[in-house]
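Reviewer 2 asked us to include a model.

Predict the structure of this chain.
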Amino acid sequence: MKKKSPEQLRSHRWYGVRDLRAFGHRSRTAQMGYDRSNYAGKPVIAILNTWSDINPCHSHFRARAEEVKRGVWQAGGFPVEMPAMSLSEPFQKPSTMMYRNLPAMETEALLRACPAPCGACVLHIAPESWVGGPLALVKTGDVIELDIPGRRLSLKVDDTELMRRKRLWSAPAPRFARGYGAMFSKHTGQANHGCDFDFLEGSVPTAEPEIH
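Predicted model (structure tokens):
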């Protein structure tokens, strides 16, 4: 991969431009104790940390983020750690499912608003596999092709094999008979419809926001 020039980096819009706004970014960064040599001409690498004292699965992320930051410094980048929503499965009531979409939305908003480079973000979602879509037919060892410019994710398994797997597939038994889990299973739409509750969908289409 060809190395980008400092002017091609996304962080150049924050630190390299000669205007009042960029001057403010540089001065505030200096206020935090960083020298110009720490960030000038370097890629800003965002580290979104979901550490939380009440989230056992993420309680080690504070130390792990420091280790990642050391690696970014050594590789010639400028690491910036930012807090992100942490969902604690054992403690959150009534269920973390109520907040599932919020971390993804927060991640996109944080990256869009800061000087870190924004790459592809591939998410998985349960409804498609629940109804027997291609995601339900994936097996260990299958090749999945990601075409970022074409915005396409392809399972490289021939149609004959997929049809065989489909015939052997059976719908899983419902996990919830009542409550929020049952409502989530019944009303959450597919990925191409935004994975939102069907009763929250509007009738007016909304254009996808441009991400730089």
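Helices lie at 12-15, 20-31, 36-39, 61-74, 101-113, 126-130, 159-168, 179-187. DSSP finds eight helices and four strands in the chain. We have added this to the supplementary material.
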